[in-house]
Amino acid sequence: MAEDIAAVCKTQLDERRIPAFAEHRVKSRNSISKSLERRELHRIKEGKGPYNGFSDILDDLHGLAGIRLVVDYPRDLEAASLLITESFHSKKQPNIFTSTRESGDPRDWPASNQLANCWKARVDSGDVYTSPRCLEGTQTVARQHIHDWINSQDQATLLWIHSPVGTGKSTLAWTIADDLANTGQIAAGYFFKRGDLGRNDASQVPLTIASQLISTVPHFESSLRKSLAASQNPDIESMRLQQQLSILLETPLSEIDLVSSMKLIIIDALDECANLDRATEIMSLLHRLKDLNTLRIRLLITSRDECPVRKAMDQLSHQSLSLAADFGKDAASDIEEILKHGFANIRKEMGIKETWPSSHQYHELLKRATDPSPLFIYAATLLRFVYDGSRRGFPKRRSESWLSRPQGDSFTTQIDEIYTAVFENIDMDCQTGKPGFLTMQEKHELQRILGP
Question: What is the average per-residue pLDDT within 82-86?
Fold first, then answer.
């Protein structure tokens, strides 16, 4: 629901030419529990007593899903606020937060309200929640390796998972986050995404990490309040990264009670940060959390093996894991399982009774997805291309169209093959075999995205 509402908001923002983007989130069970605990304490303090039953809890249960509109320029605040008041039945005016706002009374305002963090990059965001996970039974060796590292006592604090594009790094990171959410070991995450306004900004990382620790690390919020108050600077976003990390993470974490369990922080797709120099600086600063006496931190970073990241890693004690080199054979068998599962689902959805794809077609598609490199993105894109979930699809024709192109013999041509097949067929009507499938509006939008 939250995702759908955010999409509607984004459409209306575009129609009104308001330069802003819409974010959505769904509250986690742990966050709901902590909110109710705080509200019950407030009830007791006000003389109303503890909750008497489920109806009392329902009265206090709100904010399960949220929509936030982030406006680029102050002059557009009024237009965005008007959009909200005109579009929703509301009981109060929209909250407007700026980077220069004064900190509220700590007795009334949770510390999280003082942090202008990037919701879409959080481990509990709607965007991360709806991202694909590893298919059951796949990436099992890599996942076990990571779990062993997390729970070890003597291995490096930092694990760097690197490999080329399309090899499953982010999907693995999302799956590990899910695994540890169930065990209570996930502390926080920041998931970069190239081209996403605000999300690929390194300066958002400390604020976003700190805002999540409020819900995952006991007593962190009260320590954070003290640290923020002691800094005497309401505009913490303008500080140097080293100062931010000290105020938001190092100082408050050093003053909490001892936490016995290991906690993991995930930084995914570091190479997609707009400023890699600042991103690698944050990585080095986060690495200092290994010296905490109150909490054992593990830091998991995924990225492509690019020069700035590798140079920064060479300066840090870390464990390195190459998905392509260390788990290539496992990846090939996993991709075979993904294709089998995907084609079986398509046959079921479309009511295809006969054998499809043929044995020859299937093995040719499998070969292209795994040779010269096993690419999860190849398999995933192929399946989405063949069948997009609509009943009007023509999976047989689309699979034949994909196979009609010659196979490349290098990693680069393997990637090119994916995009070429998609773009050559993007305007093709599979029923008639003729162009004209896209509407003029869709063509204009595509041209806007791709550029001249």
Answer: 66
